[in-house]
Amino acid sequence: MELKWCNKPFTKVTGYSANEALGQRGTILIGADLEHGVHLFIIEKLMNWENFQTEAVNNRKGGETYFQRMSWSHLTDPTTGDRWWLCSIIDLGDRRQGSPREQHKSEAVSHVEDGTSILSKVHSLELENARLHKLAQSVAKDANEDALTGLSNRRHFEVEVKTWINRLKEEGREFAVLYIDLDRFKFVNDTLGHEAGDNLLVTVADILRELTDDADLVARLGGDEFAILRSLSSSALAISGLADDIVQRMQAPFFCDGKSTSCSTSIGVAIANANTKDPERIVAYADEALYHAKAQGKGRWSFFTEQMHAQSIATKRLASDLFLACERQEFIPYFQPLVDARTGEVASAETLVRWAHPTRGILPPVEFLDSAENVGILKQVDKIVFEKLKLAIAVFDEADVLLPRVAINVSAARLMDPTFIHDIRSSGIAPNRLTIEILESVYLDRLGDLVRWTIDELDEIGVTIALDDFGTGHASVSGLLEIKPSILKIDRSFIQPIVDDVTKQRLVSSIVGIGKSLGMRIVAEGIETEDHARVVSALGCDYLQGYFFGRPMSAEDLKALLCATDGLLWPRARSYGASQEEEYSEKAS
């Protein structure tokens, strides 16, 4: 240990000036007359980082003996992990009894009865001191090593990053950070067990050691996250080549107990050089690049750019704005009408959430819904929309405007929320006027028990279930039989070319036939022209939805539209002739 600080009373008690003491080893506090047993007792306590106190005879700088009390307390910096000892030294003066040596024997080492026992104790403490010294070396090594892989741990990595940044500033030594994350580690743990997961982490550590140089620092930051520090050579190819090699090696199968699985990796790369504005954030930049690599499809590496950083800042700002939007209840329902193909009257309206942003205006879901799901506020958004939807329905009813039913889209995450049914019950909307639309991409053939329970509960309380965007996902006939939706919505991609595409007409006709055979009503989405409306009506679709009848609109605009048309949005539907219906039916068949 080395003395770092002392106060004025220290110089008076010990006889050492500040200039003489600071920078010296702590052994200057051990005088010639301090008993060896007490000395070794002090060493033992210091090595174990135990707070303690001694009272014994000691020497000042000039050799003068005095009776002192030393109290030791250890301090730790939680940020860096650095440790210090704070030592308080008190001159006991007249409080000693008898000669200093007699007082010392009675209070500090009273358990020592004779010279033989003292030597025995000294020998024992010397052996213990040697053991503690070896233990301290082991602890120091463990403090910097990851116990599982033997790589540097997070603490050592963070200390080294600071050192490399200082070298960059003082000597211009540029370096790169590679932030590495395993893409399917949780899957390996869940399917093969935690032992397989540990084996995989050890294998990854071995691969990283093999692909890196001795001058590189390789660390496991925790979980399935690793990092590499590498000095820059004259070419960036050494960095990109290393990232390429890691990604390629991790594409190979991993074997555990005779079972094979795969676990690709994604990497974010950031360069710290003279142009780096904030080198202290270099690891955060690499993490942003990693996030970008995962967003692009995983199993790849991505290089940090200022544009990426700007996008990351915008994403964080958007998340912050979303929390404020919840507090201010800025989410509102928009509506798109569904028309009865036979009568032309409005049969329902699909509710679409919009964000009434205070500076950017009305924002569509594509601008914010994914971020809302990522930050975990979809439940709050739904609650706000339900409250405003209830008010809108009440306004329609008071004005005697016909709106028999409203539909609302629900994400897979909300279907798996056990509180969703409670939210529906407490929304204040009559269940018989509510349709819940489920995206086909929920993977109907692999529904979990919680989703099945939610759908059953919705059906039991009288809510209509609709399957949205049918034909674009993974639903099968068996999936339809399992979920039993009352309404099947054919995706607009099948409807758009249907007027001139006989193949699409036959395909839609087949979908309609399947749905009808299962007792479902069919909605055609994407109706943009009257020809669209006529063709799909002839093919047997029950309801029509699209820009031809109206784009998504506010509750006020929908109310005005329904009042102006008396709820009849397709007047010519009533004059639609049977001969035309037969014509399109023949083409489809």
* Widest beta sheet: strand line-up: 11-12-14-15-16-17-18-19
Classify the secondary structure makeup into a structural class: alpha/beta
Query: Based on the structure, what is the oligomeric state of the protein chains?
Result: single chain
β-strand amount: 15-25%
Mean pLDDT: 84
Distance between the termini: 92 Å
Report the total helices: 22
Shape: elongated
CA-atom Rg in angstroms: 38 Å
Low-confidence runs (pLDDT<50, min 5 residues)?
Answer: 96-115, 572-589
Description of the structure:
It contains 22 helices and 19 strands. The protein is 45% helix and 21% strand. The N and C termini lie far apart (92 Å). With 589 residues, it is α/β, with parallel strands linked by helices.
Keywords, separated by commas or semicolons:
22 helices; 19 strands; 8-stranded mixed beta barrel; alpha/beta; 589 residues; disordered C terminus
Topology:
Elements: H1 8-14, H2 18-21, H3 36-47, E1 52-59, E2 65-76, E3 83-91, H4 100-107, H5 115-144, H6 154-171, E4 175-182, H7 185-192, H8 194-211, E5 217-222, E6 225-231, H9 237-249, E7 254-256, E8 259-261, E9 265-272, H10 282-295, E10 301-303, H11 306-328, E11 331-340, E12 346-357, E13 361-363, H12 369-374, H13 378-398, E14 406-410, H14 412-415, H15 420-425, E15 434-439, H16 449-461, E16 464-470, H17 477-483, E17 487-490, H18 492-495, H19 502-517, E18 521-524, H20 530-538, E19 543-545, H21 555-565, H22 578-588
Parallel strand pairs: 9-10, 12-14, 14-15, 15-16, 16-17, 17-18, 18-19
Antiparallel strand pairs: 1-2, 2-3, 4-6, 4-9, 5-6, 7-8, 11-12, 11-19, 12-13
